[in-house]
Amino acid sequence: MVVRMDQIGDFLLSRGFLAAMITRYPDTVLVVNMSVKSVAVICFPSTDVVAVDIKKFRLNGVYRIRMLMHLRRLGVACVVHPVYSRHHFIVDTDAMVRASGAPRKIGFQGERLYGIRRWIGWVTAKCYTDLIETKAIHDTDKYLDLSRLLGIECLPLYRVQVPDTEFEFSSPYVVIFPAANTCQRQWPVSEWILTLREIQNLQLTLVICGDKPSPVIDAIRREGLVNLVDMVSKTSVIELLSLLKGAQWCVGVDGGGIHLAATVGIRTLAIVGGGHWGRFLPYPPDAQFAPVALGYPMSCFGCRWKCIYPNETHVPCISNISHVDVITVLNNWRNES
After folding, report:
1. Helix ranges, 223-284 (H)
2. Domains of the chain listed by start with CATH number
3. Is 336 exposed, middle or buried (CB count within 10 Å of its CB: 0-12, 13-18, 19+)?
4. pTM for this entry
């Protein structure tokens, strides 16, 4: 059994490892966050997928007990928790690992913790039989160390086949993901507006996407941009993959949308800060369909978003990226095509 409760971007980065696991152990069961289920089924159509409503798991005692009992009844011989930042899921995944009753329980040692988290991490680590240490930077490289322990050959990231798009627009289109899941990763609205106006000058339709409204999306809506299609909160994950498949390009901030775009193999540009530079983006040099990661190098890269410039409206490693930098990349792509 493989258990991972994180979000869709992290899941997609693990699909090479998961494919290798399922190839070596065909009866593997995937236990995933409910938000990831549809993509998991597309990636691994012949694999049993157990989807967990993580919010309900945390707040509804009856649901939690029933889910843990279900995992116990699976009777698995080994459970793997392939998430490096294990402390984010101590309440959830570590409970599932314990409940599995598996003789062998494997996970990452994870990040160095402080304070109460360090104490909780030490206690919950006791439920594992094997905790893997790794010095790898990118998450896909971390899976290589885990694969060696399991005796499998970790596969590279691969393109996922999705249905052709059924969306029709008046001109070729670019998918935009302007909203970050945290304020620290957000690119200034003013830069987004300038970027979108430049893209429109290329006679391209703008398709704004995201899982929910946000201040930056609201600001873009108020600009009254022509030839703009608002698809925020209007697509399922599968529909979004299909929409991305038909796009000319994808441009966005660091988040799940970027990894979805890379999954279907279109040209993708990500505006990336330095908090976790190298862990999720950029991809390793040999990765297929790697997004272009546009950053502003600073000596404080790798701060884990504990910014040393707390009084800035936007963190400087992102705010110093100009719309000119983005448009330059897009113009290069246009000239190549």
Report:
1. 237-245, 256-264
2. 2-150 (3.40.50.2000), 173-336 (3.40.50.2000)
3. exposed
4. 0.91
